[in-house]
Amino acid sequence: MHAAHREGSGEAGFRRIAVVGFGLIGASFSAAVREAHPDTEVLAVDVDARTRAEALERGWASEAAHPDDAAFREFVEAGCDLAVLAAPADALEGHFERLASWGYRGIVTDTVSTKKRVCELAARILPHPENFVPGHPMAGSERSGIDGARPDLFKGAHWILCPDAGTPAEHFPRMHELITSLGARVVVLPREEHDEAVAVVSHVPHFVASSLVQLASRHADDQQALMRLAAGGFKDTTRIAAGSPELWCGIAFDNKDALSAGLEEMRGIIASFSDALASGDRARLTALLAEAAEARRALPAAWVPSTERLLEVRIPMEDRPGVVAEVTTHASSAGCNIQSIEIDHVTEDSAVLSLVLTDEGDVGQLSSRLIDAGFSVSFSPLTPKEHAHVA
């Protein structure tokens, strides 16, 4: 058996990374990369001169350029192996066109919170759309721009990746290794399911938080003490409402259908509470509150997997398009967290996919899903010391 296939060089798995858009997410990503992998070269691409200067001064980038500067093209053509598009969604088309015109053949990922439009743009513009691996870090701050950025922003956060049948098998392990090295947890979602999922857990909550702040603000003039009382739980619940209005307006219209459906469903849920009150139905109101309380208590307090209970899953497979995306999607669906992933090539057409899982999720469900999908699977406990030799 050959050694595990790894491309790129350096501890990060990528030697040269161009980060396009040095706002909160792009700058935090670069800061985390430079902290974890100081030998990695990072180009900060941004339209704002102060931001570029800050990126260099803080050591979060080794070079900086305006999108129209020749230095951007030179960095790409000199061997850039990862382009991270962290610019606003409406700017991505121009950046795809730049990369395409320069014949870029490395991996491209993005950080925007909707996927339908960006995937359509990549498929239409990029000469090698199979190298586009859509991404979405589920992290943020009430502060925007480089001033709100910090290297630990992604620690413990979920980072969605959306490989598909066309994604080369080696791309996912490389992206997974880089993202988890920053402290984030990778979750795999099919591209067509992403926008509806984040509408429920991210976009609708933002608009609900904004609505709560509007409600309090409307009554602040009548009750001078109200805003002083709006601390603690209220302040925590509505923190996200302080985000950039322009950014969230763009997100809303990019995900208009899923967001509208979610807000309409939310309207019905609120109405059920209102109806129970209006009809004096204490049993119904108690049941609604109990249902929500039970669901909330079931959420994990934090992602703290045990390092003493690792499990290796080995899956012999044909080296065919989409197999890695299929397996990792099954793992995410079963709630299993992949700590590391490797591909051991046996022959030109066959390989063994090796996953190291933490103690989360339903391994039995994962096994059933994989067997039903036609895979042969073997599980074995793995100690941290053994894992050091695998990873």
From TrEMBL:
UniProt EC number: 1.3.1.12
Keyword annotations: Amino-acid biosynthesis, Aromatic amino acid biosynthesis, NAD, Oxidoreductase, Tyrosine biosynthesis
Pathway entry: Amino-acid biosynthesis; L-tyrosine biosynthesis; (4-hydroxyphenyl)pyruvate from prephenate (NAD(+) route): step 1/1
Pfam families xrefs: PDH_C (PF20463), PDH_N (PF02153)
Entries under SUPFAM superfamilies matching the protein: 6-phosphogluconate dehydrogenase C-terminal domain-like (SSF48179), ACT-like (SSF55021), NAD(P)-binding Rossmann-fold domains (SSF51735)
ACT domain span: 312-385
Gene Ontology molecular functions: NAD+ binding; prephenate dehydrogenase (NAD+) activity; prephenate dehydrogenase (NADP+) activity
Residue span(s) of domain Prephenate/arogenate dehydrogenase: 15-307
Biological processes annotated in GO: tyrosine biosynthetic process
Reactions catalysed according to its record: prephenate + NAD(+) = 3-(4-hydroxyphenyl)pyruvate + CO2 + NADH
Family: Belongs to the prephenate/arogenate dehydrogenase family.
Annotated PANTHER family: PREPHENATE DEHYDROGENASE, PREPHENATE DEHYDROGENASE [NADP(+)]
Protein name (record): Prephenate dehydrogenase
Lineage, top ranks: Bacteria, Bacillati, Actinomycetota, Coriobacteriia, Eggerthellales
